[in-house]
Write a structure and sequence with these properties.
heterodimer, A: 171 residues, alpha/beta, six-stranded parallel beta sheet, B: 337 residues, Rossmann fold, 2 domains, three-stranded parallel beta sheet
């Protein structure tokens, strides 16, 4: 199985911790026996079985990956959020639903909320984050996977199990 | 000066105009002495002065690039927006201004491309229609917008004289809903005008492709998968005329390639086509239906007496020279500030 790791933000000279983690994760995945590469956007011949995106993935990218028969996993970045109560989550859900109803489709599409339903798996770092994406963005429970950002080797082992558990094809 | 190119639509997932534009631009820049490289997000040692995004760069990414000391240039494809009516653009302008004026929506603003248009060091587009949209609708200062046409490869700039001996019209490009390939194939059958489609779909398993493929009868609807530039030039030179019926386009490399090969053209009546080909092309009616069947049949019948539009066609090298000028001005501006 080949996994392509992808994100948009450039590494800065003083790279942030999440960025460093992706680099270390690739090394750990390779050590765990996963054929993991960075996704070279410019390489039309690069192939893979799973595309793992870091950040909220664009819905259009999910569709493109599926068209090519790749499964898509994304690790959502919810760093700006804090744990919130069930009532707060319900209020946020209501806000999302109102926005979906009143905002033009094009604006809503920029928010990529549909990615939670379309992607094959959504990885979060804590149980409260899982509850958040489930309750606020309507991510299906079976697609949410909590992988605590522990050591790279531990994360890689859990991700390998996740990749292996995905259906053979996204179609 | 080193320019790093980036594109958020990976080429292995979606072939098409953006890929050609990126690859040809990079190659031509290198040929005129401007070093280029593909942006690699995982490489913190990659050096450059300018990050040129083909497509829209999300605002947080743009800010991160700036932290790294790069100037940011983007080439968005305003394919749909630049073809909207004046009224639609006016309404859009009101909506954009209102939404960006609402305080406390930073996360939303960060995800919308509009604020990124305003903050980008330079936005380069191919059409005046796109420049108009950026300035009037999105409020981008004129000094931060430049129009640079797209180029053509040498194969298309020197294709040899048109032959035009085949009985079919030709349509080139990806087979898909954005190109209205299925609708055009149905139109060809209805108008009884032989039409050769040259291109491949993004997805051979899609229902759209299957429906299109079912119409291929080698009489009115013919199909050739993508054949490379030399083969494409050969198909174009031999065709009777060129037809494009995309929902929207901006520059349309395919239409310019056909013009270079000496074909008369039937195009959708939109801003992009009027700007590029004016009254030198035939146009579909804005309303689809019987009028389109008539337009196609009339074009087919008149083709032998029609010539190709005479528009200026640039090489990628000429495009690269224009780009180099913009990059240099951008860096000179940074040196002054």
């Amino acid at each position: 199985m080949k996994v392509l790791l992808h994100q948009f933000e450039p590494m800065t000279t003083g790279a942030t911790e999440p960025q460093r983690r992706i680099i270390q994760l690739r090394e750990a995945l390779v050590a765990a026996g996963v054929d993991a590469e960075f996704f070279r956007w410019y390489d039309g011949a690069q192939t893979g079985d799973v595309l793992h995106f870091f950040g909220r993935v664009q819905t259009s990218l999910v569709r493109l990956a599926h068209q090519k028969g790749m499964r898509l996993v994304f690790t959502d970045s919810l760093e700006r959020l804090r744990p919130c109560s069930s009532i707060q989550r319900r209020l946020r859900r209501a806000a999302v639903q109102v926005a979906q109803k009143i905002l033009p489709y094009q604006i809503v599409s920029y928010l990529d909320w549909q990615s939670y339903q379309l992607a094959d798996a959504c990885v979060v770092g804590a149980q409260w984050e899982a509850e958040f994406v489930r309750d606020v963005f309507a991510a299906p429970s079976e697609k949410i996977h909590v992988v605590a950002p522990a050591g790279a080797a531990d994360v890689a082992a859990k991700l390998k199990a996740l990749y292996d558990s995905l259906p053979r094809t996204s179609r | 000066m080193r320019v790093l190119f980036n594109n958020h639509t990976p080429f292995s997932l979606a072939h098409g105009g953006a890929q050609i534009q990126t690859e040809c631009t990079m190659q031509a820049l290198s040929q005129i002495g401007v070093p280029t490289d593909h942006f690699r997000w995982w490489d913190d040692r990659q050096s450059g002065e300018i990050l040129h995004q083909v497509g829209v760069m999300p605002l947080p990414v743009m800010r991160r690039a700036r932290e790294r000391g790069w100037r940011v240039v983007q080439t968005p494809l305003l394919t749909e927006t630049c073809n909207r009516s004046d009224r639609e653009l006016f309404v859009r302008r009101l909506g954009v201004s209102a939404l960006l004026a609402v305080p406390g929506l930073r996360q939303l603003h960060d995800r919308l491309p509009w604020q990124a248009y305003r903050e980008c060091d330079l936005t380069i587009v191919g059409l005046e229609a796109e420049r108009m949209v950026l300035e009037r609708v999105y409020g981008v200062p004129p000094e931060r917008v430049a129009v640079v046409p797209l180029g053509l490869s040498e194969t298309f700039l020197n294709p040899g004289p048109p032959v035009r001996t085949e009985p079919h019209l030709i349509c080139t490009g990806t087979i898909g809903p954005l190109k209205n390939s299925l609708e055009l194939a149905r139109l060809a059958v209805a108008a009884q005008t032989p039409m050769l489609f040259v291109g491949k779909p993004f997805d051979y398993a899609s229902a759209y492709w299957k429906e299109f493929h079912a119409l291929v009868d080698d009489r009115f609807v013919k199909h050739q998968p993508h054949v490379g530039n030399d083969g494409l030039v050969d198909w174009l030179r031999r065709a009777r005329g060129y037809v494009l019926m995309s929902r929207n386009e901006n520059w349309s490399l395919a239409a310019h390639e056909a013009a270079a090969c000496g074909l008369p053209m039937l195009l959708p009546d939109q801003r992009w086509s009027r700007e590029r080909f004016g009254d030198q092309a035939a146009y579909f009616s804005k309303k689809l239906g019987d009028a389109s069947v008539t337009a196609l049949r009339k074009f087919y019948d008149q083709c032998p007496s029609l010539g190709a539009p005479k528009v200026r066609l640039l090489s990628w090298r000429e495009v690269a020279e224009q780009l180099r000028g913009h990059y240099e001005r951008l860096l000179a501006g940074r040196a002054r500030s």
